[in-house]
Design brief:
By secondary structure, the protein is of the alpha+beta class. It has 2 domains: 192 residues, q2cbj1_9rhob like domain (Jelly Rolls, Sandwich), CATH 2.60.120.620; 30 residues. 23% of the residues lie in helices and 28% in strands. The two termini are 14 Å apart. This is Fe2OG dioxygenase domain-containing protein. Pfam families: 2OG-FeII_Oxy_5 (PF13759).
Length: 252
């Protein structure tokens, strides 16, 4: 098909894009990959601790510790950068879960693009004795298709920064129990209805930081939708005002 002009700043991933080499799959349903760089991990870690210091959290799946309220409304540069890095991993997750096929009814005559949109996003700060009890994030819908967790930099302790000795994420996959140790800069995606919990942080393990979220997929199968995703008002107007032509004609 015709490839959409992407550019390094395009807010989407190509459905036909190459799989990143850092992907790890567990049980065919859980994806782990590295996301961003060490500087982003440090900035997001600092944000988690700042939110904890401000207080005003909530109690949902956390037994002790701090869980923030929804962060999707915030304009922090680190959070915006983090969310723009989620398009490629979500496309990989959907390719595997859909056995390489996009949903029926999409326009596949041109390049199909995938945009990830966080519909819930919150920070967790667990200290010794704190944990997250067994829970899931609800049944998937045609649009809310994945849940995930990202591990920011936890601080100066090198052992903790590499995940050594840190409280593990326990996922109850169909084949049994999958346990993953936190690793700074790592992203884990899994089905929204997959039961999971975290171990209690040990007495000498310091602090455990994470960002948890649910993702909505936006299928960008037309030039008009891609222009809207970019916020390109002039391109939107051009497409809408085309006379005698289909607004979804291939992009110039």
């Amino acid at each position: 098909g015709v490839r959409a002009a992407r550019g390094p700043e395009a807010p989407w991933a190509s459905w036909d894009g190459e799989e990143p080499t850092s992907l790890e799959w567990f049980n065919g349903t859980v994806l782990r990959t590295e996301l961003g760089d060490a500087e982003l991990a440090r900035r997001l870690g600092a944000l988690c601790l700042e939110l904890e210091a401000q207080g005003g959290g909530r109690s949902v799946s956390n037994a002790g510790g701090f869980q923030s309220k929804d962060l999707t409304w915030r304009t922090d540069a680190a959070l915006r950068e983090f969310q723009e890095l989620l398009h490629e991993p979500l496309a990989s997750f959907l390719r595997r879960s859909g056995q390489g096929q996009p949903p029926a009814g999409l326009n596949t005559g041109q390049e199909l693009c995938v945009r990830a949109v966080a519909v819930d996003l919150w920070a967790n700060v667990n200290r010794p004795g704190n944990r997250n009890v067994i829970h899931n994030h609800g049944e998937p819908t045609p649009s809310v298709v994945a849940s995930g967790v990202y591990y920011p930099e936890v601080g100066a302790d090198e052992d903790l920064a590499t995940g050594a000795g840190a409280a593990r994420l326990r996922l109850f996959v169909p084949s049994g129990t999958l346990e993953l140790a936190p690793r700074s800069g790592a992203l884990v995606l899994f089905p929204t209805n997959l039961l999971h919990e975290t171990e209690a942080v040990g007495p000498r393990e310091g602090v455990r930081l994470s960002l948890a979220f649910n993702l909505r997929v936006r299928w960008l199968d037309r030039p008009l939708l891609r222009a809207a995703a970019r916020g390109d008002a002039s391109r939107i107007l051009q497409l809408v005002e085309q006379e005698g032509e289909d607004a979804d004609a291939p992009e110039p």
